[in-house]
Amino acid sequence: MSKFKTITVSELKPMLQQSTPMVLDCRDVKDYRAGHIEDALHLHEGLRESLLMKGDKARPMVIYCYHGHASEHVAEMFSDFGFTDVYSLKDGYAAWQ
């Protein structure tokens, strides 16, 4: 059983208005620059390593990719490192647009 949760776009939108989750885009940098969820950070290797070692493990974290598959693997990795409130965006950035 996975330790992360799946979140839909309709669930994420109110969450972004009510709290400040860390939103991480794990697509390649070219696609991130072409468009991303407002305030999302591009999850490059350096940021990933920094967050895994020093990040706030209790802060809600939403991870997305193109269609929701790669983000599940990244969300599981963060969960394995002790992050307790991790979400993968169902159907990814394609659903957000």
SSE inventory with pairings:
Blueprint: E1 5-7, H1 9-18, E2 22-25, H2 29-34, E3 41-42, H3 45-54, E4 61-64, H4 70-80, E5 86-89, H5 92-96
Parallel strand pairs: 1-5, 2-3, 2-4, 4-5
Q: Provide the succession of SSEs.
A: EHEHEHEHEH
- Main beta sheet, described? 5 strands, parallel
CATH uppermost class: Alpha Beta
Low-confidence stretches: none
The portion of residues forming beta strands comes to 15-25%
When the domains are counted, the total is 1
Relevant CATH superfamily: Rhodanese-like domain
Whole-number average pLDDT?
96
* Overall morphology: globular
In CATH, the topology is named Oxidized Rhodanese, domain 1
* DSSP summary, beta strand count: 5
Range of helix content: 40-55%
Number of helices: 5
Question: What is the SS-derived class?
Answer: alpha/beta
Distance N to C terminus: 30 Å
Looking at the overall shape, the CATH architecture is 3-Layer(aba) Sandwich
List keywords for this structure.
5-stranded parallel beta sheet; Oxidized Rhodanese, domain 1; alpha/beta; 97 residues; 5 helices
Q: How would you characterize the overall build of this protein?
A:
With 97 residues, this protein is α/β, with parallel strands linked by helices. The protein has a single domain (5-96), classed as 3-Layer(aba) Sandwich (Oxidized Rhodanese, domain 1), CATH 3.40.250.10. Helices cover 43% and strands 18% of the residues. The protein contains 5 helices and 5 strands, in the order βαβαβαβαβα. It has a 5-stranded parallel sheet with strand order 1-5-4-2-3. Helix 4 (70-80) links the parallel strand 4 and strand 5 (86-89). It is globular, with a radius of gyration of 12 Å. The chain starts with a strand and ends with a helix. 30% of the residues are buried.
